[in-house]
Amino acid sequence: MKRFRFSGRAAVICSLILALGIPSVAVGFGEGRNLLLGKRNPSSNPALALNSETEIIADNTTFGTRQSNKRDGDGGGAIYGCRSNPGNEPCIRSVNLKGGRAFEFITVGKEGGRIDIGGDKSGAPFTTNATGVATGLNSDKLDGKEAADFAAATSLTFAAISDPGGDATPTAAGPTGPTVTRATVDGNSVYTVDFKRDVSKCSYTAAPVGSPSDVTPGVSAVANQANQVAVNWGNDGGTPTPAPTRGSFHLQVIC
What's the superkingdom here (predicted)? Predict the structure, then answer.
C-alpha cells in the first residue's frame, strides 16, 4: 500500500483553512465578508441573510455614504425594505444629533414626493408633535373636508346701512361696495340692498343699530334680482295713518 507524506507545510495550510472557515459559521452566513458589487449580498439565496447590523461609520465634512444612479431617464438611487410591525422600527430612520435638519428632499420636477398607504387609506399620511406653522404647506383637506367645503372670504359679507331719517338718503358700506334705496311699500319702510354679487342662495340677518329696539326687520331675497336683499322695517302702527319706520341697521349675508 502506497503511503502519502503529510508535510509540515501542508499541516499549516490546512490549519489556516479551518481557522478562516470557522468565523463565517460561528457568527452567521456572510458576516465578515466583503460586499460583492452587482450581486445580491451576502448570497443569491434569499433564505440566507445577515444576522447583525452592517455599520458604515464616517468622519468627514460631507456625507457618510453616497448612492447614485447615472442612468439617464430611468432608475432610482436606492430602495429600502423591511417587515417591521406597527410600533417597531421604521424602514428608514434619520436622526440629527446636533439640532440641524434630519432630512431634506430636493427635485427639479414639479412634484416633491408621494406617500402611498397600501392598507386603510383613512389613516394619517404622517404624524408630528410639532405645533408650528409649516411654511408653504397648502392643505386641500381639513377634518375630512375638501377646501371647496369651506366658505371663502367672499362668501361672508355684510352691509352697514345708515339712515339718519328725514330728508336724508340712506347709505351703505361693505366689502362688496353695496348700495341701498328706501321706498314705502304698503305703508312699510322697505330698504333694498344691492350687494353687487349673487346672494340669491344665501341666508340674511338684519339687526338695528343703536339702543334696544322693538323693531324686528324682515329680510327676503328680491325676486328676479340675484344681487339684492329686501329689509322690511314695517311702520310705527300709528292711527289713522301709520308712519313707515326708519333707522340704521347691519345686514349680514352667509352663503
Answer: Bacteria
List, in order, residues 6 or more apart from 151 with CB less than 8 Å away.
Answer: 254, 255
Residue 101 lies in a domain: no
Q: Quick one: how far is CA 196 from the chain centroid?
A: 34
For 165, left (φ over 0), alpha (ψ -120 to 50), or beta? left
Report the candidate in 199, 215, 225 with the shortest Cα–Cα distance to residue 249: 215
Position with higher pLDDT, 94 vs 48: 94
**Pick from 121, 122, 103: nearest CA to 113:** 103
Q: Is residue 48 part of a domain?
A: no
Alpha carbon distance 162, 246 (integer Å): 10
Name the pTM for this structure: 0.50
For residue 175, pLDDT over 80 is answered with: yes
Contact by Cβ (8 Å): 189, 182: yes
8 A C-beta contact, residue 229 and residue 222: yes
Q: For 33-77, what is each residue's pLDDT tens digit?
A: 888 888 888 888 878 888 889 999 999 999 999 999 999 999 999
Sign, CA torsion 6/7/8/11: negative
H helices then E strands: how many in the chain? Answer: 1, 10
Assigned domain for 240 exists: yes
Domain count, the chain: 1
Sign of CA dihedral 111, 88, 132, 145: positive
Q: Classify each residue of 221-255 as buried b or exposed e, where b means 16 or more C-beta atoms within 10 Å of its C-beta.
A: bbeeeebbbbbbbbbeeeeeeeebbbbebebbbee
Q: Which residue segment(s) compose the domain that 229 sits in?
A: 153-254
DSSP character at residue 244: B
